[in-house]
Amino acid sequence: MTPVSFTCIIIGVLLNACAQLLLKAGVNAVGQFDITAANILPVGFKIATQLPIIGGLALYVVSVVVWIVGLLRVDVSIAYPMLSLGYVVNAFAAWYLFGEVLSAQRLVGIGIILIGVAVLARG
After folding, report:
1. Cα 115 vs. chain centroid, distance in angstroms?
2. Nearest alpha carbon to residue 66 among 83, 81, 90, 48
3. What membrane topology does the UniProt entry give (predicted)?
4. Which of 19, 44, 111, 119 is the most buried (most CB within 10 A)?
């Protein structure tokens, strides 16, 4: 994998991860709610107008464009597993930003993901 190809893939992964974090921030701002026929439109409107939600969706669009450029240069059998790096980024970002728990079991899983990505990147 060339440096340019690797950069495209990593930027796509990071944009996707950031989009996920923005979506989480947006729904956190809305708060817990029940989905009922009576409140689906007001809650849907409230969600759709949250700036973090809008930003997250916009980042998804940009990440898809960058991802397509990456797929032009890298085999999908290598590129697609690299998306799992997003799990690693989001686990640490969610711990830092949202106070989510990083248990020993999650850290072991993150380690396994990193080993898998390293094996794939070398092959």
Report:
1. 19
2. 83
3. Multi-pass membrane protein
4. 19
Pick the closest to residue 61 from 18, 6, 7 (CA basis): 18
* Per-residue pLDDT, 85: 93
The pair of three-digit structure tokens given for residue 41, joined into one six-digit string: 């439109």
**What pLDDT score was predicted for residue 42?**
87
> Tokens representing 23?
């979506």
Buried b (16+ CB within 10 A) or exposed e, 37-76: eeeeeebeebeeebebbebbeebbeebeebbebbbeebee
Token pair belonging to 17? 């991860």
How far apart (Å, rounded) are the C-alpha atoms in residues 56 and 61?
Answer: 9
Enumerate the domain spans of the chain.
Answer: 3-122
| The pLDDT of residue 78 | 86
Is residue 84 within 8 A of residue 117, CB to CB? The reply is yes
